[in-house]
Write a structure and sequence with these properties.
It is built from seven helices and ten strands. With about 240 residues, the chain is an alpha/beta fold. The structure holds fructose -6-phosphate.
């Protein structure tokens, strides 16, 4: 595990974008999987700027969705699909054939099969950029998830439901999510975990000092041979 600590969120985002850009330039044709949520936003913005200045061609790789709130689609502000489309796939001009995300309004198990098939067809995940929930979740792999979970419909924890309201402009009555599972994520060639801010310091400290602990799903990444944790100083208290 490599831990990269930057002075602040902006510097952390720039460092993550450099890392992703280098991966794409070396690995055209591979598939990337990015978390939605707040933490990746500046990273995604930076990647788009890099494309605009000719440093990277974001359409030289493929993308798979990581997760989605069951019941939400593009028209719902705060859905993973809306966040990723408006902040990345749209401005980066990624054509629809290059990506497969979860549709939270469709059948969760059928969506999971389709996303997993897309990933397998492209040779597996090359690079996964994951965030971490306040309870240690990665994607929607909630505490208690077992390592052989490939992906599918999950019951969301109260913590994820409460924290998740920050993404929405109106109260959402949610109970389930759909996600790539631990087994699929640890099979990625390269994994990044990104976290920013004091509020993440405790869960980061606990997750990084554990290994394969179901109560701390991010700890399943501990033994990954190519694992990079990007933090800002305040998340590394
Ligand atoms: C979102 C996702 C989640 C988030 C996590 C952190 O697609 O998979 O696991 O990465 O909840 O979210 P933020 O970055 O908003 O703190």
């Amino acid at each position: 595990m490599k831990i990269i600590v930057k002075e602040n969120y902006k510097e952390m985002a720039a460092s993550c974008a450099d890392f992703i850009c280098a991966y794409i330039n070396k690995n055209p044709g591979r598939l990337l999987c990015f978390a939605a949520g707040d933490t990746p936003l500046a990273i995604l913005k930076k990647l788009i700027e890099m494309q605009e200045t000719g440093r990277v061609n974001l359409s030289s790789v493929y993308y798979a969705g990581l997760d989605e709130w069951e019941g939400l689609g593009y028209e719902d502000k705060g859905s993973c699909m809306q966040v990723m489309q408006d902040n990345f796939y749209g401005p980066a001009k990624i054509e629809s054939e290059r990506l497969r995300v979860f549709d939270g309004k469709a059948d969760a198990e059928a969506e999971t099969s389709a996303v997993l098939d897309f990933i397998k067809d492209k040779g597996g995940i090359g690079l996964a950029m994951l965030g971490i929930g306040m309870n240690g979740h990665i994607g929607f792999n909630e505490p208690g998830t077992l390592p052989d979970f490939e992906g599918g419909r999950v019951v969301l924890s109260d913590n994820s439901l409460n924290v998740g309201q920050k993404y929405f402009d109106k109260a959402q009555d949610l109970k389930y999510g759909v996600t790539l599972g631990i087994k699929t994520l640890v099979a990625a060639e390269k994994v990044m975990l990104v976290a920013s801010g004091e509020k993440k310091a405790d869960i980061i400290a606990r997750s990084l000092s554990a290994s394969n602990e179901p109560a701390l799903p991010a700890s399943y990444l501990a033994d990954h041979p190519d694992y990079h944790v990007f933090l800002d100083k305040s998340a590394r208290a």
